[in-house]
Amino acid sequence: MTGKRVVKLPAMGMTYFKRYRMEFDLRNLRSDEPMVPAEYELVAFAADQLREHAIAKYNSFRYELDADVFPCLARRDGCLKLMRDITSRHDFVPQATWLIRHLEQDPTTGSICKLPVGTIQGLSSDGWGAVQNLGVSPLHRGKGLGSILLAKAASGFASVGLEKMHLEVTTENTGAVRLYERMGFRKSRIVYKAAEVAGARS
Q1: pLDDT tens digit string along 39-79?
Q2: How confident is the model over 133-145, as pLDDT tens digits?
Q3: What is the pTM of this model?
Q4: Domain residue limits, the chain
Q5: CATH architecture of the domain with residue range 15-198
Q6: Cα(145)–Cα(156) distance, rounded to whole angstroms?
Q7: Which residue spans within 26-127 are E strands per DSSP?
Q8: Distance between CA atoms of residues 158 and 27, nearest Å
Q9: CA-CA distances (angstroms) from residue 31 to 1, 113, 154, 158?
């Protein structure tokens, strides 16, 4: 007898998540954009930021329902791979991809630390701007950062000649749905995303 402990893992089952496709007409885009709070900085995409985007993505989604829908969002390496996959695509739109950093002063040295807390990415698909993974870390929500990222992505899509954009959101994420509706998005249809979830009944 080796005395090895047998750990029984919860059974995996297929679950279908109900999601809204929401659309926005970029011809209705307003010229004014939300102001960035003083303790944050908004950064246009650069190739050396992939890890920062991945950190912001991981911290934004790891405890959220979207991590069940898209399991890669629950892992640091999964978020980094996702960023590499998005930015290597031929339809990647750098102009619609933005990062928000929080500026914090180190009490010991007085130096400023820049922590990635928000991210959005954009693709161009069949004449549409397609928003990918808009996320803000939980401690930094309620400050308008999601609106800022979405507005900058919309401006980026418009700057490359796109006239409409869309995104998908899980229907249970009511806070995000309300944000998108305030920004002028309209629900166009319901889609379902299949995902394996521990403990779910297939």
Answers
A1: 999 999 999 999 999 999 999 999 998 888 899 999 999 99
A2: 999 999 999 999 9
A3: 0.87
A4: 15-198
A5: 3-Layer(aba) Sandwich (3.40)
A6: 16
A7: 40-44, 98-105, 112-125
A8: 8
A9: 73, 32, 11, 11
